[in-house]
Amino acid sequence: MMQCHLARLMARERLRVADVARATGLNRSTITALVQNRATRVELPHVEALCRLLGCGVGDLFEYIADAGDTGAASREIPS
């Protein structure tokens, strides 16, 4: 599963959803979905805007957490 750390990063900078929306131009509902880990997809320009605002990398914003018993792609080699 993907974990979004936007809420933690916003708290670090003392930003509210309205502040992030104003600074990035993103819709408040998009930001709220990310904060609540309900987002099912994210546009790359949105990720870029959030990283720029928060001074972080993509890996700081999102984290992949394997589900218990997940033996999926992590154990397979990706062909070149």
Concise synopsis of the structure shown:
This protein is mainly α and 80 residues long. The chain has five helices and two strands.
What does this structure look like?
This protein has helices spanning 6-13, 17-24, 28-35, 44-54, 58-61; strands at residues 2-4, 62-64. It is built from five helices and two strands, in the order βαααααβ. The protein is mostly helical and 80 residues long.
Spatial strand order of the main sheet: 1-2
- Flag low-confidence runs: none
Global shape: elongated
Largest sheet: 2 strands, antiparallel
Tally of DSSP β-strands: 2
On the 0-100 scale, what is the average pLDDT?
Answer: 91
Output the radius of gyration. 14 Å
Structural class comes to mainly alpha
What percent strand?
A: 5-15%
What is the level 1 CATH name? Mainly Alpha
SS element count, helices: 5
Number of domains: 1
- The helical percent reads 40-55%
N-to-C CA distance: 25 Å
The CATH architecture: Orthogonal Bundle
Topology:
Layout: E1 2-4, H1 6-13, H2 17-24, H3 28-35, H4 44-54, H5 58-61, E2 62-64
Antiparallel strand pairs: 1-2
Task: Give the tags.
Cro/C1-type_HTH; two-stranded antiparallel ribbon; elongated; 5 helices; 49% helix; 434 Repressor (Amino-terminal Domain); mainly alpha
